Amino acid sequence: MSADRVWFSADRLLARLARTPPPTILQAILIGVFAAAIALAVRWAFSTFYAEVTGFMILLPAVVLAALAGGRVAGAVAVVLCLLGGWWLAGPDAAGVGITSNLGRVATVNFIVVGLFVTWVASALRRALRRLDTTVADLRSAAARVDEYEARFRDIADVAPVMLWTGDIEGRVYLNAEFRRFWGDRPTDLSDLTPWMEAIHPEDRERVWTACLNALQTRTPLEIEARYLREDGEWRILSTRARPRFDAEGAFLGVVGANIDLSEVRQVESALRESEQRFRAMADDAPVLIWVTAEDRTREFVNQAYTQFMGVEDAATLRTDWRKFIHPDDRDRIIAESVAGEATGQPFSLEGRYRRQDGVWRWLKSFSRPRLDAQGKVQGFVGVAFDVTDAKQAEVDLKRINELLEDRVGRALLDKAQAEADLMHAQRMEAVGRLTGGVAHDFNNLLTVVIGGLDMLLNNKVDEAKRLKLTEAALSAARRGERLTHQLLAFSRRQALRPESVDVNALIREGEPLIRGALGGGMTYRTRLRRGGAPVRVDTAQFEAALLNLLVNARDAVAGQGCVEVETRRLKVKAGEISDLEPGDYVRITVSDDGPGIPDEVRERIFEPFYTTKAVGKGTGLGLSQVYGFLKQSGGAIHVVTGPGEGTRMEMYLPVAINEDPARPAPARKASPARGGERSVLLVEDDPEVQAIAVALLETMGLTVTTASDAATGLKRLKAARFDILLTDIVMPGEMSGLDLAGRASTLYPDMRIVLATGYAGDDVDAALRDAPWTLVRKPFAIDALRAVLEV
Prior knowledge:
Layout: H1 3-19, H2 25-45, H3 60-70, H4 72-90, H5 102-159, E1 163-168, E2 173-175, H6 177-183, H7 194-198, H8 202-218, E3 222-229, E4 235-246, E5 252-261, H9 263-285, E6 289-293, E7 299-302, H10 304-310, H11 314-319, H12 328-344, E8 348-355, E9 361-372, E10 378-387, H13 389-459, H14 464-491, E11 500-503, H15 504-510, H16 512-519, E12 524-528, E13 535-538, H17 540-557, E14 563-573, E15 584-593, H18 600-603, H19 623-633, E16 637-642, E17 648-655, E18 679-684, H20 688-700, E19 703-708, H21 711-720, E20 725-729, H22 738-748, E21 753-758, H23 763-769, E22 775-778, H24 783-790
Parallel strand pairs: 12-14, 18-19, 18-20, 20-21, 21-22
Antiparallel strand pairs: 1-2, 1-5, 3-4, 4-5, 6-7, 6-10, 8-9, 9-10, 11-13, 14-15, 15-17, 16-17
C-alpha cells in the first residue's frame, strides 16, 4: 500500500472520527474492551516473537485507538485490560513484564503513564477534530451564503436602471449590466487606465482625475458630475457617487459606486430654464401686472410692470403685502373675494382701486388661475391685472353722455309729442270743420222737414191727407237723423256693438231682397259663398249696414249699369301680410264691381269722415268711415284692391268664430199681469221732454206709467209699489246709473221685466252692456220697436 493511500485512509478515518458523535459510557467501555481484546489477541499470536521482549508496547496502539474512538473512558478501560492481559500472557515472572522484577515494575508503571497520557492526547485530538470539523462546516456554509449573496447582488445590480460598479485593491472591477451596455467592449482592467481616461470629456478630465485621487487617498466618499463617452460615441452627463469599503478591522478593500445618467434631466432643466427666461422676458415686456404666488399666498415672481406700479425693488416686492395698496373703501370686499376665490381652486376675477407708486388711485381688474402639481393639488396662483381706469372713466363719461342724450331725447320726444298733438289738434279741427259743415247741412235739411211739417200740423191748416203726408215726411227725416247719428258713432268707434256668432252666408242670403232693391233693376248681382258656412262673431245689424253701404257705393261706382259680386272665403293671415291685421284665421267678405276703379289720390282719403266724391245732397261721407269703425271694433280690417280701369274690390276681414254657439237672446222675463189686466211700468228718465214722449208712447200701448227723474228716486218707487216692467235710461245724473238700478232691481224683484234705454252710453257702459242680461232699446224710440221689446 502506497503512502498516499495510507494518508488518504487516515484522513478518511480522522474525518469519520470527527463527524462521529461522542459515545455513551457503556459504548465507551465496550470500545475499550474491544480494543484491548484485539491487542491481546495480536500479542498472543506473536508470543513466540515477543518471548524475550516486553509485551506492553505492542498493546499501546490499542489504547490510542480506543481513546480516539471512545474517548477517555474507552482509553482508560483499554489501559487496564491491556495491563492485566499482558501480565496474564507473559506471566508474573516474565522478564521486563512480570511484576516481581524491577524491570517489570518499571515497565508496568511506564505503560500505565504512557497509556493514560496517550488516552488524554487521543481524546483531546478527537475533540479538536470535532471542533475543526464544525468550523470547517461553518466556513463552508458561510462561503455558500457569500456566494448566494454575491449572486443575488449581481442579479439585483443587473436589473438596476443605474450603472453600478465595484473595484478592489488588486485592480479587479465589476460592472453591472447597465454599465456594461454603456461601456461596451472597452477594457475594464484597472492596470491600464487609458480607456477610462479617454472616456472622460477632455474639459472634465483633469477635474474628475483630481477628485478620484483625492477620494482614494483620503478614503472619503466621492460625488461628481461630468461628461462621459458612451459606447456608441455620444457624450452623456453622468452623476458619479462612490464610497470606500473596509473590512471588520478597518482595512481598505476597495470602492463601490453608482453612475446615474442625467442627460435627459439636464436637458429638461435647461429647457425649463430657457422657458422660465422666456416667460420672465415676456412678462417683463408685458404692459400689465403679472405675478405668481406660492401655496402660502406669498409672491414667488412679479414682473417689471408690477414692480414699477408698486415702486419698490423686486426682492422687496415679493415680501410686500399687496393688500396695503388697496383703497380703504374696497379693501374688505377685495380681500373677502380673493380668499373665497382661492378657496374654490378655480379661476376668479377681482376689480378695485389700488394706489400706484406716485400716490394715484388706479382701477385694476385682475384674473387669477390656479397652478396645479402632478396630483392636481393647487400650488399657488398665476395672476394678471389690467389698468381699467380709462375704461372706467369712459364708462362714467358714456353714462353722463347717455343721461344727456336721454334728457335731450326726452325733450325731443316731448317736442315731437307736442308737435303731433298740435298736428292732431289741427287735423281734428279740420275734421270738426268738415263734420260741422256736413252735419249742419244734413241736419238742417232734416230739421227743415221736421220743423216745417210740425209747424203746418200745429196751424191746423192742412187736410187729413196732407197731415198724414207731412207726418210721414217728418218721421222719415227723424229716422234719417237717427241713422246719421249711428254712422257718426260707428266712425268714432263709440257705437255699442252686440256681437253674436253668426254665419255671414246666411245673413247675405236673408238680405238678398233688400240688396237687390237697393241696387236697382239695371244691376247684375252675384254671390260666391263658401261651402260649409263662414262663422264670425259680429253685430248683425252693423254688419248688414256695412255690407249694404259697400254695395251702394259699388252701385254708384258703375252708375247703376254693371255687375256687383259678393264673395266669402275663409283664410289664414300671416304676420305682416295685411296691414292693421293680427295673424290668425279670418273670413273675408269681398264686394267687387267692374267700375272704373278708384284713383290713388282718392283712395288715400276714402275712409276720412265726411270725405265724399258725390254731389251735394247725394252723400254724407260717413259710409266708409262707418264700415272702417265697425270692422275695427269687431277685431277685423278692410283692405282695398283697385286700380284705374280695373274695378274695385272691398275686402272685409272678420275673425273666425271657433267652437262658439250662436248668441242667444236673454230669456224674457214674463211680467205678472196687474189687477184688472192692466200692466204697470216704472219709467226712469232724466230728460223731461224725452220722458213726456215716452210716457205718451207707453200710455198709447195701454200701460200704466209711473216716472222718476233719477235712479235713486226710481229705487224708492220700486220699494213703495209693485211694477211689472222697469224701463230705465242708462246714463243719468247722480251716483247710481241705470245699470246700477237694474242690478239692484233684478236682485230685489227677480220676476220683474227690465229694459234698458240709451242713445249713447260711453265706453265704460258699453263694456258692461256686453255681459248684461237685460234687453236694450235705442233712442229715439220708435213705437213699433218699443212695443216689440216690451211685448205689449
